[in-house]
Amino acid sequence: MPFTVASTRATTVLRNQLKVHFTPCPYSVCASSRFSSTSKTRANPARPTVSPKPHSERKRSNSLPLYFQSRRSFHSSLLSLNGRSDPYGTLGISKNASDKEIKKAYYALAKKYHPDVNTEDGAEKKFHDIQDAYEILSNAEKKSQFDSFGPGAFGGADATGGGPGDAGGGPFNPFSNFSGFAGFGGGQAFDMEDLFSAFTGGSARGRGRRSRDTVQEFKGDDIEVLVSVSFMDAAKGISKDVSYNPLVACHTCSGTGLKTGHKRATCPKCRGTGTQVHMTDGGFAIGTTCNTCGGTGVFVDPKSACSTCHGEGILKTRRTTTVDIPPGIEDGMRLRVSGEGDAPPIQSDKNVRIHRGDLYVRVKVEPHAEFTRKGPHVFYTAEVPMTTAALGGKVRIPTLSGEADLTVPPATQSGMTVTMTGRGMPMLQRNQNGDMKVTFKVNTLRPTNAEQTRLLEMLADAFNDRSARRTQTNRDK
């Protein structure tokens, strides 16, 4: 399809941004326009400014700034075969070179002859020859064609394979799917349609600004607060009041940021597109969200701004929310309260949907004096007398649900563990509890009078314990 710019405004904006000049193409093969450019955004004193010349006086090496020179050409008759006539020789490699060797040679030469680092005469031309050579050898199909037919394989409609309908663009539409603009290293290409769209807010055919029928959705930031609970509250569950300071829609203007009866104005920075285009040193066109309007294409004029929120549409306020902490919550877990976070810093509008972020409540479980836990299981250490440990018996111990009797098996040793099934923490989202594991610690008896000492010595004699110390009285007996 022939390239046309249907909107005078689109053409004016594009020329103002890039100083674009359209001149008639003398070649019969192209019924469209010849595109040349001088960028205002790339100010490099080491490189001369390119200005339009008659077509017969321009050469491929200096007709466009570096970031608009392409390995693909608009006209097949303008193709340079310097890098294509002997790509192997241009890169200084053999025909048996591997893909890794080809890439290594290309990067080394491209870095050496890049016009930004090499200002010698002929460096820029050499750089383009290197790019041309690498374009062939890095593409398996083109490499095979060159190996089979030599330079003649690229002397047809488009030396880069860009005939009508191909990626190189047809001769009747030089911007149709044009993907040849690439920076240092032959990186990712982009479509000229996107460039027009970024500058004019629509397609390359001149749609004025982004459609007001498009609904945009924005979500605010999440908020996290810390809540401390006791060990027993974590076991049983509890409701906690959480206070925090979220951003919410202004109550005066209902989030519009405007005074009553006022409207938004078109953003002067992006001209209503919501996008800003930047040219990098490597020659890439990068579109970013406009930082003035936040991508909406409109903004609140200070004269029309709400006096309460000053045009922001949001205010910071103090809120208190009740959060139910479920039984069995573990230390460090987070609870989410949907839609209770910050509102986005975007003014509300009929075509803008605003969603608040979420509130996250991080729970800190305080340690307990007697219990510890690991997952749903609770651990407790029970101290028992030596006689109870030896003879067996029962001890009364605390649990999460109150005190309970625990049977001590005969001959219990320190470090032995018994399990009380179902006496642990509730399991989240499961109708069951963990276990309580009790570890015994046997306390040695301490005699406090002569009678207790005598009885213990008799016990030692009964168990034939010859290592136990005896008093003089018992030793004499």
From TrEMBL:
Entries under InterPro entries matching the protein: DnaJ, DnaJ_C, DnaJ_domain, DnaJ_domain_CS, HSP40/DnaJ_pept-bd, HSP_DnaJ_Cys-rich_dom, HSP_DnaJ_Cys-rich_dom_sf, J_dom_sf
Native organism: Lipomyces starkeyi NRRL Y-11557
Record lineage: Eukaryota, Fungi, Dikarya, Ascomycota, Saccharomycotina
Residue ranges annotated for the J domain, each copy included: 86-150
Name of the featured protein: DnaJ homolog 1, mitochondrial
Residue ranges occupied by any CR-type domain in the UniProt entry: 237-318
Entry keywords, A to Z: Chaperone, Metal-binding, Repeat, Zinc, Zinc-finger
Disordered as annotated region, ranges: 38-65
GO molecular function, one term: zinc ion binding
Gene Ontology terms: biological process: 'de novo' protein folding; protein quality control for misfolded or incompletely synthesized proteins; protein refolding; response to heat
CDD domains: DnaJ, DnaJ_C, DnaJ_zf
HAMAP family with a match to the protein in the record: DnaJ
Superkingdom field: Eukaryota
PANTHER family: DNAJ HOMOLOG 1, MITOCHONDRIAL-RELATED
Single GO cellular component term: mitochondrial matrix
One matching Pfam family: DnaJ
ZnF (CR-type) residues: 237-318
